[in-house]
Every structure is written in structure tokens, then in C-alpha cells.
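Before we proceed, please read the two lines closing this message. Let me know whether the C-alpha cells fit the sequence:

…
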Amino acid sequence: MLANRQTPIDIIFIHDLKIEAYIGAYAWEQQVKQTLVFDLDLGFCIQKAAMSDAINDALDYAVLSQHLHEYLSDKKFALIETMAEKVAEFLLKTFALPWLKIKITKLGTITRAKAVGVIIERSATP
């Protein structure tokens, strides 16, 4: 994570967020939405919100989750890697986050595995 910054970065997390989306390299996968599980760790300084105790100063989990759901509702990705990059770009920009870590899990893809997926960590560009 980002180190040696004057502004502290705390981590707000949303784990086990289930979103239906089009994902897959095969033609049939592009025709049906599949359930993906998102674990989001979001860098965000909580000091202002902690001092004011006001939701307007906080990162609103419900708003972020809804925006992510809407963002993915009409998009189709062949690769989960592409989806992870696009989701990271979207969240960093939309919510002015300095840093995030995303884990996207796709269930039931491989016969002998419960799940597959990716984990990426990205920082906002200055």
C-alpha cells in the first residue's frame, strides 16, 4: 500500500459483494449473467467522517456498491483480468480513491476447484 504519505490512508472494505455480470471467453457465457463475488479494500482517509459523524464525509458503501452494479450491468468481458482492470479504473476515478485492492471470484468455473479469480492492487495516478 502507499507509504510515507502525509494524509493517512485507512481501509474501508466491502467483502462478499455478489454482482451478476457477463463474463467469459466462450460464446454461451456472453449470453447469461453469472454471479461474481467481489472483495474490495478501498483506501480512504476516514478522519473527516470520524470527526463529523456525517455520511457526506464518508465513503458510502451502499452508493459505491450500487454504482459498481450499474457499471457492470450492461458490459461484457471475456476475461476476468480485463474486468478487474476496468473496475479498478472506474472506482479510482469515480470515488477519488488513492488506492484499492480488488478480488473478483468466479464460482464453478473449473470442475475440481470451488472458485477461480484475480486479485489486483492499483493506485490512482497523480
